[in-house]
Amino acid sequence: MKHIEDISTLEFHHRQGGQFRWITITTLMLAIGTILHLVSPSVGGVTPNWTIATYCVAICLTKPTYRQALGIGLVAALINVLTSKSGFPYGNLISEPIGALTCAFLVKNLAFLKFRGHSCLPVLTGFAATCMSGGAFVTILKFALGLPNNVYFTGMLPLVVIVGALNAVVTPLMYFPALRLFVSRGILDSLEEQSVTSDHSQYDLKPSVPGLISIEHLSYTYNKQTTPVLDDVSLAVHKGDFLVITGESGSGKSSLCMAMTGAIPHYFGGVMKGMVYVDGKATTQTTISRLASRVGAMLDDYDSQLVAMTVEEEIAFSLENQGVAPDKIETAITEVLEKVKLTPYRTRQLTNLSGGQRQRLVIAGVLATNPEILVFDEPTSALDPEGTHDFYELVHELNVRYGHTIVVIEHNLEAALPYANRLVLLDHGQLRSDGDVETTLRYMYDHDIYATAVPKVFACQMDLEKAGYQFDQPWLSVEAAVRSLQDAAPALERAV
Ligand SMILES: Nc1ncnc2c1ncn2[C@@H]1O[C@H](COP(=O)(O)OP(=O)(O)OP(=O)(O)O)[C@@H](O)[C@H]1O
After folding, report:
1. Residues in domain ABC transporter (predicted)?
2. Of 194, 218, 238, which residue is a domain's last?
């Protein structure tokens, strides 16, 4: 594992999309492999192992993770078991995953080997994966059928090496045309484009600041853009926080939110520098779906997150997606509906819900994955004052009663700040203030950055302080201002 001294120098380049290419390409290649396996004639009882050759091509082209390679090996094994004429084909269930993992290992570690500018991987993987897989298969066969040692050592193992040599020839013969075809059809990036897609699996990445989410020196530039929308942002979200992020439109708040969910860099293309850690794990070393079980997000156009016809179907959909057992779904639906106070609406059609109720339903769907951290992007932009108040009462309860850590992007600070313990100000992609609510509001007022969002009552206190009056308590609400004025009354009378 490589250690990184200065995380701000570590880059992650990614082109948008493409996370399912390995499935598309592997499916196509294994289909070709199966046809060749069924029709190819053998010469003297020897034929290339087309299944191995084709999944080696797919793995060399798409560079899947080890877990994905294991999946490829298991699918190849099933194909072999179903199409084999052998008396004992079940050894494939072990030998094919070994072959696919061998191939993935070589692709990860020997990609630098080139001959006259061409990758040596097809030759190497074709040979090594076939020898490893074939070796495992004949060893299982020897013990399963009780074959004598001389048959194993003088017949079976040499045959495996011969088939390995044949595959070292046929794999590159399929790899290079396949590469050209997939690139020309736009299914695969060209080699130049692939060379800029990063792989962080070899890095030892650990947060230097503890936190449920630790953002360290994060800079981010969207695909095809030249100016970063986040510029060296460092921020830690701690357990139990109710953190509000604010800033002018376009200051990078939603982008920061997307970085917490892993959509940046995994979904949006572009260049990310620095790192985001969730639960101590670098987001470049995990997947969006795994992050979703830790960080639940409600987007500003939350209606787009609804997919079903009725309230209970909507939550059941989220639960089924997580693989929750059918007998547990009913109870889980009851629990999340209780949490978001939608129990009386359980069988209601989505079209008969108000905007606020639909929003609660989206939150219920997010809660169904049981994430510890909840991220809300401009949640109240479409709500009236009463709906906004109800929303924050609900989120407050999720924070204090159910222990969820909350991150909210908000322009309406008057509504959100009574519940917040921290306020962060972003300006042109830079984090300008991170502190308790009073500290950041003072910063906004003093530096005239997004000062129009400072609650009126707090701005009034700032105006009075400017005029020379001092107050012990920050005026974060009208009630706090009244109490503070009552305390300060004697001093004010003397001053007037
Ligand atoms: N997918 C994208 N591709 C390219 N640029 C983008 C993309 N999404 C956002 N941007 C740009 O990134 C910058 C920051 O946008 P972002 O949405 O993060 O800001 P914001 O503070 O949340 O704004 P708002 O309050 O208006 O939602 C903006 O200049 C925006 O145009």
Report:
1. 213-453
2. 194
What separation in Å is there between the alpha carbon of 250 and the centre of ligand 1? Answer: 5
pLDDT digits (tens, 9 = 90+) for 393-418: 999 999 999 999 999 999 999 999 99
Beta-carbon contacts of residue 60 (< 8 Å; ≥ 6 apart)? 103, 107, 119, 121, 122, 125, 171, 175
Residue 470: pLDDT band with limits 50, 70, 90: confident
- 35 occurs within a structural domain: yes
CA of residue 255 to ligand 1 center, whole Å: 6
Domain boundary among 140, 167, 194: 194
- Distance, CA 254 to ligand 1 centroid (Å)? 7
Distances (CA, A) of 7 to 95, 202, 450: 40, 14, 30
pTM: 0.72
Return the sign of the alpha-carbon dihedral for residues 413, 415, 418, 422.
negative
Domain count of the fold of the chain: 2
Answer yes or no: is the C-beta of 246 below 6 A from any ligand 1 atom: no
Query: With a 6 A CB cut-off, is 253 part of the ligand 1 pocket?
Result: yes
